[in-house]
Design a protein that fits this description.
heterodimer; A: mainly alpha; Non-ribosomal Peptide Synthetase Peptidyl Carrier Protein, Chain A; 4 helices; globular; B: alpha+beta; OB fold (Dihydrolipoamide Acetyltransferase, E2P); Dihydrolipoamide Transferase; Chloramphenicol Acetyltransferase; 5-stranded mixed β-sheet; 20 strands
């Protein structure tokens, strides 16, 4: 899996949760919860989907590192070693 | 042979439009199967069958609009009735307003603020027609508002359904309101410990504990669970908790989690997650929309401190949960920071009084403070 693949998965899953928000209209440094109007249930569904598609189990203690698209992308790269 | 009729999913529903058949003539039907999708004023509803049989013939084509009670199909098998059995003799006004599909994302890659996108989605405004005046030509909420002011679209059918139900509630139900703030550190600590051991798909949220605590408390306070119909309160033996879910693009739905007091916390969480996913996608089932016996509304972690709910007629209570907020709390004579949640109740004074309401809220608080027992 490449860095671009990973970003595409993030975009795809956020798109499933918030289809009305165009991914490329959001800055990579915007807070995900505000930019995609995501509540705790949506966020959990996002984490579940990332687990299923990348194998990375993000513990609750690391949720803070998933705050923005850029930070989530960096965190997942670190966990996957890419 | 049994007639399958256009179901009534609320006192204000007059007709429904067939969107699609999900079963075809000759198909075997089992109780709970979804036979068709019907578009109502409340949105797209999946219509279930409640007994086994075989679909003999479908009598209408997609696109047809039929009044409530008109025959849609014929079913061969044991005596079969159309749609959800109704708990109240006269159909309740919709507790839930189902969604219309969310508007498509704008095709362009223009920069738009979240507030502007939300408003545009609510008002069905095409963002490509909005002139951006923000930094770098980005579209702001004010830009969308200025277009809204000039176009003034008619309110959506979902908004009309919400307005009808809420206006009836405020006209007919003498609400009283109570609030009770509790320390939820025990619940949060228990959740953190549980979730640390669980894969994401098995994790729990505070909202599931809140629904379970409310359902268990209702066993001891039946005056808050049921329907006010024909000038009398009819308590419900079943506890079906309607969970208010915000719909993307505006509006809300409050479909039921059936027999919530009897579910394990894991089952209740799984059902809630499934419900949220389907409601946001614009689909839920006729049985879920028709029969909540109480509603729980939680504003979640991006909400505010407290909520004063409007009762969905013919229900007689709505319980609200604000978001957890760190507050100074007196513990054994010392001030400590503690996460606090304000639980609120809007009750129907035709059925219950503030004293019973206060005891009900206190009981919910006690149950939430002992999460391992939920």
């Amino acid at each position: 899996m490449t860095k671009d693949d990973l970003l595409a998965i993030i975009a795809d899953e956020l798109g499933r949760i918030a289809p009305e928000v165009a991914f490329n209209s959001v800055s990579l440094d915007d807070a995900i919860q505000a930019a995609f109007d995501i509540d705790s249930m949506d966020f959990l569904n996002f984490i579940i989907a990332l687990h299923e598609r990348t194998g990375v189990n993000v513990p609750e203690a690391d949720y803070a590192r998933m705050r923005t698209i850029a930070s989530a992308h960096a965190y997942l790269q670190e966990r996957l070693g890419i | 042979m049994t007639d399958f009729r256009m179901p009534s999913l609320g006192a204000d529903m007059e007709d429904g439009k067939l969107v699609e058949w999900l079963k075809h003539p000759g198909d075997a039907l089992k109780r709970g199967d979804i036979l068709a999708v019907v578009e109502t004023q409340k949105g797209a509803i999946e219509i279930e069958v409640f007994e086994d049989g075989v679909l003999e013939e479908s009598l209408i084509a997609p696109g047809a609009v039929l009044p409530v009670g008109a025959v849609m199909a014929r079913i061969r098998g044991s005596g079969m009735s159309a749609a959800a059995p109704h708990p109240a003799p006269s159909a309740p006004v919709p507790a839930a307003m189902a969604p219309t599909p969310p508007p498509p994302a704008p095709a362009t890659s223009m920069r738009t603020t979240p507030a502007a996108r939300r408003l545009a989605a609510e008002r069905a405004i095409d963002l490509s027609k909005v002139l951006g005046t923000g930094p770098g030509g980005s579209i702001t909420r004010e830009d969308v508002e200025s277009l809204v002011a000039t176009t003034a679209p008619a309110p959506s059918s979902m908004r009309q359904a919400i307005a009808a139900a809420m206006a009836r509630s405020k006209r007919e139900i003498p609400h009283y309101y109570l609030a009770h703030t509790i320390d939820v550190s025990a619940a949060q600590t228990w959740l953190s410990q549980q979730n640390a051991l669980r894969a994401p798909a098995e994790r729990l949220l505070l909202g599931a504990l809140q629904v379970k605590a409310t359902a268990l408390a209702l066993r001891e306070f039946p005056d808050f669970n049921g329907f006010f119909d024909k000038d009398a309160f009819q308590p419900s033996a079943d506890i079906h908790v309607g969970v208010a879910i915000a719909i993307r693009g505006g509006g809300l739905a409050a479909p039921a989690i059936h027999n919530a007091a009897d579910l394990t916390i894991d089952d209740l969480m799984a059902k809630t997650r499934d419900l949220v996913r389907r409601v946001r996608a614009g689909r839920f089932r006729s049985s879920e929309i028709a029969d909540p016996t109480i509603t729980v509304t939680s504003l979640g972690d991006r909400g505010v401190e407290s909520v004063w709910g409007v009762i969905y007629p013919p229900q007689v209570a709505i319980v609200g949960f604000g978001k957890a907020i760190e507050k100074p709390w007196i513990v054994a004579g010392e001030i400590k920071p503690r996460p606090a949640v304000t639980i609120s109740l809007a009750g129907d004074h035709r059925v219950s009084d503030g004293h019973a309401g206060a005891l009900f809220l206190q009981r919910i608080g006690e149950l939430l403070s002992a999460p391992a027992a939920l």
